[in-house]
Specification:
By secondary structure, the chain is of the alpha/beta class. It is 46% helix and 13% strand. The protein has helices at residues 11-20, 38-41, 44-49, 58-65, 68-78, 82-86, 160-173, 190-213, 218-235, 240-249, 255-266, 268-272, and strands at residues 2-3, 30-32, 53-56, 97-99, 105-108, 111-117, 126-130, 133-135, 177-180, 184-185. Strands 5-6-7-8-9-10 form a 6-stranded mixed beta sheet, with no helix packed on it. Strands 1-2-3-4 form a 4-stranded parallel beta sheet.
């Protein structure tokens, strides 16, 4: 089993890591995708070519089979960096895609893998639980080294209320081990990690509400939020070098259009009232 593939540009890293544990890419028969953003699912077609079944949320399946809209959307954001960041993007054959509904169970002896719908970062997001372990996708946050967990706010599907509800679902599952695609197992108490993440979802989203309501435009928000996130990371244990790594992994500017769209779509009265 493999949980998320990463982009095709890092496929060779997966090959190397599998060799280090005495396995090969041909041994991967089941690929469970948290969601279909290219940094999580871009290499799914490579594993499908080798015969793996690709499991995905219902809303993500068609975009794996025909990624044209995803490519066009990403190209508007990343432009000339598409190839460098994501590598080759190709369709996953329909016969290799299996849709998982919320709470579906896939038996992969000796485990049973349960998919749990957890929107907020994306509407088509699953986490996966087996025994006392949970693979958190992006809804469980990004965390590097000794830094704090941060929520990757990205367009176009950021939904704050859903994010809080999804964190609550993970809390109820009470996993002993939480694994993050960015990056690795959570060290220390999972509950403490979730509490810190939940608080930051609230605080960052409220910061955006206040600034948008005060009339801040996108360029000003980009600069101001970059400072906010940097200072938050430093105040919570990150070094300057680690803060730069966070910025590389989860660029702060990505949060701005996601937050603007969220507030304007779901709570327009709260951000437009003072801007008339």
């Amino acid at each position: 089993m493999l949980f998320d593939t990463g982009p095709e540009s890092t496929f060779d890293n997966i090959v190397t890591a599998l060799r280090q544990i005495g396995a090969s890419v041909n041994d991967i028969r089941h690929v469970f995708l948290s969601h279909i953003h290219f940094d999580h699912a871009g290499a799914a077609w490579r594993f499908a070519e080798l015969g793996a079944t690709i499991y995905v949320h219902p809303r993500g399946a068609q975009h794996l089979i025909d990624p044209a809209k995803l490519i066009a959307s990403a190209a508007r954001i990343f432009g000339d960096d598409m190839q460098r960041l994501w590598g080759r993007i190709a369709p996953v054959p329909e016969n290799r895609v299996r849709i998982l509904e919320d709470k579906a169970i896939v038996p992969v002896a000796p485990f049973e893998i349960r998919a749990i719908a957890t929107p907020g970062h994306a509407s088509h997001h699953h986490v996966y639980r087996w025994e006392d372990n949970l693979f958190g996708g992006d809804i469980a946050g990004v965390r590097l080294g000794n830094g704090p967990p941060i929520p990757p706010f990205v367009p176009p599907e950021l939904q704050i209320e859903s994010w809080h509800e999804s964190i609550a679902k993970i809390r109820e599952l009470n996993p002993t081990n939480l694994y993050l695609p960015h990056f690795g197992s959570v060290k220390g108490c999972v509950a403490v990690h979730l509490d810190a993440l939940d608080e930051r979802v609230t605080r960052w989203s409220e910061w955006f509400r206040e600034k948008i309501s005060a009339g801040f435009r996108e360029p000003d928000l980009v600069a101001a939020f970059a400072r906010l996130e940097h200072d938050d990371l430093i105040a919570n244990g990150a070094t300057e070098e680690l803060a730069r790594d966070y910025e590389t992994v989860d660029p702060s500017y990505m949060a701005v259009p996601g937050a603007i769209r969220y507030w304007q779509k779901y709570h327009p009265g709260e951000v437009f009232a003072n801007n008339r």
